[in-house]
Amino acid sequence: MSDQATILREKLQFANQPKSKVIGIVSGKGGVGKSNFSLNFAISLCQKSKKVLLLDFDVGMGNIDVLLGTVTNLSIIDIFNKNLTIRDIMNIGPDGLKYISGGSGLSNIFSLSESKLTHLFNELDTAIEEFDYIIFDMGAGVSEQTIKLLSAMHEIFVITTPEPTAIMDAYAMIKHLVLNQVRAKLSIVVNRISSQKEGESVHFRLEQAIKHFMNVEVNLLGMIFDDPSVRKAVISQKPFILHSPSSQPSKNIEFISKKYVNEDFNEQPSHSFIHRMKSLFLKR
Fold first, then answer.
1. Whole-prediction pTM
2. Angstrom distance (rounded) from CA 249 to CA 177
3. Which of 18, 131, 207, 235 is most exposed, with the fewest beta carbons within 10 Å of its own?
4. Which has the closest alpha carbon to 189: 215, 213, 162, 164?
């Protein structure tokens, strides 16, 4: 009898665990390649048989559409405006990637009534059951609402480059997250490096400053080399991992996603994203 009770408890515990890992991808400033990383990383995960939903949360920009060379007219706000479900507004991208385009109405999405927010969270909850990873490509900078949203996520990737302003802005972003008690696991991606040494130097400088002033560990997820193939892919409106799969940046993305999946294999999400969203945005 005790063995049966133990098995039942384990089944219930597993059933209550959130299926999707929710990742927020941020940068302190614009122009560091955040959306390009988000898209190519998501496609690389799909190529490893992972089910991925990418949400363009860069208000009104539609960066994912531009990078894919597509035109879509629906965004998350149309769940209310046109009485659609979250599956109605999903688009199908390369290698089975599902994505939701950014929209101008996103700027006011968390100012909606409690009933509409509840409806949104319930729609997102249906997606949790379907995907291994839900990736939010966030806008540059921070606000009170984006901090709340990031507080509900399981992991946050901070994208930076070797430019001094990008490094300082990445540090400022991490400082905002820490001071606002965001508990998500933090990782850094150093984009557009000219050498391995340069990338390691950027991470070291950030890591030392963060440890000294905030006493927080920040993981180096990976580095991506600067390469003309990325610009050519952007002009062609095709993800660089598909446009130039043998290029150094594509190999870097492949390494990062493979490393991430391997490290993530036995790691369960520590909390329910939807439960945290409701507790942060709905009145109790």
1. 0.90
2. 28
3. 235
4. 162
